[in-house]
Amino acid sequence: MANFTPVSAALGGGLIGLSAVLLMLVTGRIAGVSGIFGGLLDFKNNDIGWRIAFIAGLISTPLIAGWLGYAMPTPKMPASWTVIITAGLLVGFGARLGSGCTSGHGICGVARLSGRSIAATAIFMLTAIVTVALVRHVFGG
Amino acid sequence: MLMIASLLCGLIFGTGLLISGMVQPTKVLAFLDIFGEWDPSLAVVMIAALAVAIPGFALGKRSVRPLLAAQSFWPAKKSIDQPLVIGSALFGIGWGLVGLCPGPASESLTTLSPGVAVFLAAMTGGMLLHGLWQKSRPMVKNEGALANTADG
To answer: What is the DSSP string of A73-134?
Structure first.
C-alpha cells in the first residue's frame, strides 16, 4: 500500500460530496456525470443549460489549477486503441443502460440510500475488479 | 443563477477529483487491483464523499424545494431491474479496462491526450448507440419516458 494517499483522498472525496449536495440543494439536480453528459446527447431534451454549465466547470478545473501552478498529469492510457475504444463504448453504453455511473450511483445514489444504486455500485465494482484481475494477473497484460 | 450554481458545482466536483488523484487512471486501477499492490485511496474518496452527501441529501429530501429551482429531480425508479444489472456490469468492465469513468474522462479533455480524446469519442458513441437502441424498441418507450430522471 505504498501509494495510499488517505489525506488527499479524504479531502477530494469531501469536495465531491459537497458538490453533489450543493447541486441538489440549489438546483434540485443529481450530480451524475453520465446522466448530465447523456442528457446533452438527447436533442429533444431542452433542459440543457445547467448540464453545459456543470460540464464546463468540470472541464475547466485543470485549466484554473494550471494557472494556480498545479499542472494536472496527463492520464496514462493503454497502448492499444482497440482496448481504449472498447472501454469507451462499454462505459458509455453501460452507464446509460444502467442509468448511472460512479458519481450518479456510487456517490449520489448510495448517499440517498437507494437500493438500485447500492446494487449498481456493487455490480460495477465487482466486474471492474474481475476485469483488472484478468488483464493483469491471468492474461498478464 | 442556476447556470452559475451549476458551473460552481462542476468546479468543486472537478477540484475534488483532481485533489483525490482520481483523474489518474493508474490510481483508479491500483484500487481495483486487489490481487496486486492494492491502493485503498478510492475507498477513502467514497467514504469521505458519502460522509458529506448522506446528511446533505437527507436535508435535501426534507426541504420543500431547492434554492433556485421549482422542484427537485429525485430519481423515481425503485426496482433492481435487468437493464440496471446488465448496464452496470458492462460499465464496470469498461472502467476496469482503462480506469476512466465519465467524470475524470471529461475533466481530462484539456490535457489533449489522444487516448483520452478517443476514449471520450467512444464513450459518446456508446451513449448514442444506447439512445438509438432504445428508440428501436417501442415497448420500452413508456418506460423510457418514466425514467427520464435517470439515477445519475
So the answer is: PPP---S-HHHHHHHHHHHHHHHHHTT--IIIIIIIIHHTT-HHHHHHHHHHHHHHHHHHHI
Q: Which domain holds residue B26?
A: 1-74
ipTM: 0.96
- Tell whether B124 and B67 lie within a shared domain: no
Claim to verify: residue B86 and residue B150 sit in the same structural domain: yes
Domain end (from B56, B74, B92): B74
The answer to whether residues B69 and B87 belong to one domain is: no
Residue type, B28: V
Domain count, chain B: 2
**Which residue among B36, B61, B126 places its CB closest to the CB of A91?**
B126
Q: Are residues B107 and B94 part of one domain?
A: yes
CA distance B36 to chain A (A): 8
How far, in whole angstroms, is CA B33 from its chain's centroid? Answer: 21
Cell 477530494 sits on residue: A12
pTM of the model: 0.94
For cell 469536495, the residue is A15
Q: What's the average model confidence in pLDDT over A100-126?
A: 97
Cross-chain residue pair A124–B98, CB shorter than 8 Å = no
Name the amino acid, one letter, at B29: L
Residue A123: CB partners within 8 Å, gap ≥ 6? A98, B85, B88, B89, B92
The per-residue pLDDT for B138 is: 72
Cα dihedral A31, A37, A38, A42 sign: positive
